[in-house]
Design goal:
The protein is of the alpha+beta class. Helix content is about 20%, strand content about 25%.
Length: about 270
């Protein structure tokens, strides 16, 4: 490899330096994919990419998707904008902090994205970190009786769940009609690593299929509390030029809006099929 890698968290996350994503060889791409599968979260430091170049670099990991729930850059519709200036444009126009609660991207869709890529264009001097949680480790740490109980269960996910923990942006009626409920396994087997992981989204899960609502709520609340314990977490402190790639099939994440008022946070985002 022509680049250097350094472990960031004790059980997940790795940083890469000495790589220019404007010009990546095939063998380097394969090494990056391997690092991501091994570490769940991959940070590529010191990048300078215009939106089309960012999209093209992320296409090395999969097919970029369109996501209408977020604004996009003028130059490139596959590159979404996540900003400290975001507002609920179709609703009450109040500020929205995208990703402020624990979640995994796209679980309300029947075919969720696999990977998310976030590019730190402008980062606050203080705060604005992103937290990640390791869903392999959370599953492995469950008692064997609990694992046996939940293997095979499925959960209804929806864009605006009655269990949601935070505000979600208002969407046009025709877009909502095109986002019917999705049903996903509570425990997923990763297609590449073949490891089992909890598949949770506290902001989108509605109910366990074929389970009484009270029992479903109790089970989901217990699993969420278990999976988001500090021992499963990694906290990413952003540097300008970081591109952080994570695997939604085996992680949760959340954004921290704890930076001082007046500080700007601007991220570009790509998700792949």
């Amino acid at each position: 490899m022509t680049f250097h890698s350094e472990t960031l968290g004790g059980h997940m996350a790795v940083a890469v330096t000495g790589l220019d994503l404007n010009n990546v060889r095939d063998d380097e791409t394969r090494s990056l994919v391997d690092l991501l599968h091994q570490n769940l979260v991959l940070c590529i430091r010191d990048q300078q990419l215009a939106p089309p170049a960012f999209r093209d670099a992320m296409a090395l990991f999969g097919r970029p998707l369109l996501r209408k729930q977020l604004a996009h850059t003028p130059e490139c519709v596959e590159v979404n904008i996540i900003s400290s200036e975001d507002r609920d444009e179709l609703g009450d126009r109040r500020r929205i902090v995208n990703g402020a609660s624990w979640h995994t991207d796209d679980s309300f869709m029947r075919e969720p994205c696999s990977l998310t890529m976030l590019y730190g264009v402008v980062v606050p001097a203080i705060g604005g970190d992103t937290l990640f949680a390791n869903m392999y480790a959370a599953y492995d740490d469950l008692p064997s009786a609990t694992r046996a109980r939940i293997d095979g269960l499925h959960v209804v996910h929806k864009y605006s769940s009655s269990r949601k923990l935070g505000r979600v942006s208002t969407r046009p009626a025709e877009e909502m009609a095109a986002m019917p409920e999705a049903i996903h396994p509570l425990v997923r087997t990763h297609p590449e690593t073949r490891r089992k992981a909890l598949y949770l989204n506290p902001n989108r899960m509605e109910q366990v299929v074929a389970m009484e609502r009270s029992d479903s709520d109790r089970l989901l609340d217990e699993l969420i509390a278990h999976a988001t314990q500090p021992k499963f977490q990694y906290r990413h402190k952003w540097r300008r030029g970081d591109i952080v790639i994570w695997d939604n099939r085996c992680t949760l994440h959340k954004a921290n809006a704890d930076y001082p008022e007046g500080e700007q946070r601007l991220m570009h985002r790509v998700v792949v099929a």
